[in-house]
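Lab notebook, bench 4. The sequencing result for the construct came back, and we need a structural model before the next group meeting so we can plan mutations. Quick request posted to the team channel:

Model the 3D structure of this chain.
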Amino acid sequence: MIRLLILSLCALSLMAQSWEPVRGLIPGARVKVRETNGPEHKGAVAAVTPDVISLKTAKGDISVDRARVNRVQIHRSSRRVRNIAIGAAIGLGIAITVDQTLGALLRNEGHDSTRAITYIAPIGIFGAIGAAMSPYKTIYRAP
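Done. Here's the predicted structure in token form:
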């Protein structure tokens, strides 16, 4: 019972995150801030203090108190490139598998024109899925 209590307390400390990564944001960084009551704001960081994050959004300047912040995510364009590469690699793996199984059967029957489609379609589809995935990384989540 004591071990379970200690383990639970350790898990609680892992869930709580520090505000320091948010304070380290430079002005102009693209972020998404979700408040605890639901609204989400996208914009560029104007300033961060120990108690408030200020953004320049399309609707104007906004400040959100730290107590109302549920999550802060930073935009990373390299993350989108990574997601596209992972999606394309998955598509390539599927294409090779299909080509070596169904493709071999079709080529045996005299249908050589399917090889290009076998590779292009899965790579394109899964690369697009990767591109559609969020380029945002969570740097703060309220406890």
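The chain has two domains: 16-75, 77-133.
Will bring this to the meeting.
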